[in-house]
Amino acid sequence: MMNKRIHAKYFSRFLNLLPHRLSCHDSTRATIAFFSVSGIDVLDSLDLISEQSKQNIIEWIYGLQVIPKEGNVKCGGFQGCTALNLLDPPENCSTDNYKWGHLAMTYTCIAILVILGDDLSRLDRKAIVDGVKSVQKPDGSFSASIEGNEFDMRFVYCACCICYMINDWGDVDKELMGRYILSSIRYDGGVSQHVENESHGGTTFCALAALQLSDQMHLLTSKQLEKVKRWLLFRQDGGFQGRPNKPIDTCYSFWIGSALKIIDAFELSNFKENREYILSCQDIVVGGFSKWSGTTSDPFHTYFGLCGLSFLREPGLLDVMPSLNISMRAYERLKSIHKVWDLNSQMEVQLNIE
Ligand SMILES: [Zn+2]
């Protein structure tokens, strides 16, 4: 059985104080907050976070937003922590030039705001979408930030989540991005992190979710869909592995499970074996899930293990929206925010006509 309360408490601890061994992750602290907040949400236990704490988290998140000053319009988005604000900027670099958004942090920060019930009214949506456009590469992929030298499918996915959530694709070239995704499909049917690399479960999820969020699933032929379905289903060996001949790992119950959900083929997997593997990685003393049975749990594998169990309709868990990777309840909240934005812009148009 799954012990819901112990996992919710596990996440709460990460929201209050991070252990020393996680200090090296300080620059990506927003993602740890995301796993904790979204995990507590999937556990349907948001009442464990007091209203005051929710407000404190929302204020902390808005404090991570980079509001570009004139002449530096490419740096919109969110940073992962405030530590950079305390450092002395390098020579010949003003403090403002030293701050820029990071796609993974921007995606997780906006998701946290939605989950905690914020109305997103303080987002600088124009700066965010300009920031996303500024890191799109000539091959259609994205890097994490303006100084980033890695550009691949992970950041294609983050870019799509951001544009979808702020309901604005600005000058992002979706067609070029679609071509990049198609060029990363491999001979075996899976999708690689970057053109010509090996097929991988995480990046196959990123590619399919990006196509769905950008409304471009039609780019896949029925033959490509059949091949990717086969590749994904063959990753099950009890739990799921990320690549052929690799050990199974809890988080792939999400990456592969979610990819199968997006192409409507999850029901073809073995629910019983998947569930048994995830539950075997549960720490029943301190809470959380690990990647392998008997090893130390961490927020990343705890979150994705719970999402994997949610796909298996585990009692007590909220449904998870596969491509955005948040609860369906948070997703519905996001749709209602979009409706308000649509109404406001319609009213603006009407006022302009009058
Ligand atoms: Zn893993």
TrEMBL record:
GO MF annotations, alphabetized: CAAX-protein geranylgeranyltransferase activity; metal ion binding
What is its cofactor? Zn(2+); Mg(2+)
Native organism? Chironomus riparius
* Primary enzyme class: transferase
User: What positions belong to coiled-coil segments?
Assistant: none
Q: How does it assemble?
A: Heterodimer of FNTA and PGGT1B. PGGT1B mediates interaction with substrate peptides.
Its recorded reaction(s) are:
geranylgeranyl diphosphate + L-cysteinyl-[protein] = S-geranylgeranyl-L-cysteinyl-[protein] + diphosphate
The protein here is known as Geranylgeranyl transferase type-1 subunit beta
Origin superkingdom: Eukaryota
